[in-house]
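Structure first, sequence second, as always.
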């Protein structure tokens, strides 16, 4: 009987000790959780203290505006700048370089192209309207190529004086088409303006009656 009582007392003591340990553990866990803000978070949200991986910081790379050189003068490259990566026919009016040309100039070039075709010549446009940003880029590239602004200006106008920027000039090709238009352009009011640029034409409506004006030596000779 005494042995049974002793064993019961021992068992009771063990149970009490376990209960005490569990109680202390729960209390400690609660305290730690409170300190660590263990409240459940919204699905997909990182809990407090957990870093959120935002991935690669896209702001480190150049923006589309920076890539095209877009600014107050418009983009310096790409279709919206008027840049043509390949020649187009005068009928492709959805192209920005043609869509922003002076309507009278575009109409004259289209008529000339139709007549040139009857002579077996395909007249294409290599350049039309240009944004100021694109023209500035071309001028800078010409300076780098020719070594000085004076020499570069004989071939590429500045933004301020370029007829391309105002939509009043086209560069045509290939050579046989430019040569054809140089001889017959006056009837359409289309005149080669510079002696050194057989491809550059501008609209001179009076040319149909009085002929084209005398050609300037180059773009730097323009008044």
């Amino acid at each position: 009987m005494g042995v049974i009582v002793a064993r019961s007392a021992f068992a009771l003591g063990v149970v009490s000790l376990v209960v005490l340990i569990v109680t202390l553990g729960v209390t400690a866990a609660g305290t730690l959780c409170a300190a660590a803000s263990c409240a459940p978070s919204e699905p997909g949200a990182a809990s407090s203290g957990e870093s959120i991986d935002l991935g690669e910081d896209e702001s480190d790379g150049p923006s589309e505006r920076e890539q095209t050189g877009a600014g107050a003068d418009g983009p310096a490259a790409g279709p919206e700048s008027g840049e043509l990566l390949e020649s187009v026919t005068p009928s492709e009016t959805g192209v920005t370089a043609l869509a922003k040309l002076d309507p009278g100039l575009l109409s004259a070039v289209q008529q000339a192209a139709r007549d040139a075709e009857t002579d077996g010549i395909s007249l294409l446009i290599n350049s039309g309207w240009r944004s100021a940003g694109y023209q500035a880029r071309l001028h800078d590239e010409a300076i780098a190529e020719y070594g000085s602004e004076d020499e570069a200006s004989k071939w590429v106008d500045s933004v301020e004086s370029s007829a391309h920027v105002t939509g009043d000039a086209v560069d045509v090709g290939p050579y046989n088409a430019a040569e054809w238009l140089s001889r017959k352009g006056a009837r359409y009011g289309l005149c080669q303006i510079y002696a050194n640029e057989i491809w550059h034409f501008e609209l001179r409506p009076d040319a149909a009656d009085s002929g084209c004006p005398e050609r300037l030596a180059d773009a730097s000779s323009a008044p």
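Margin note: The first strand starts at residue 124 and ends at 127.
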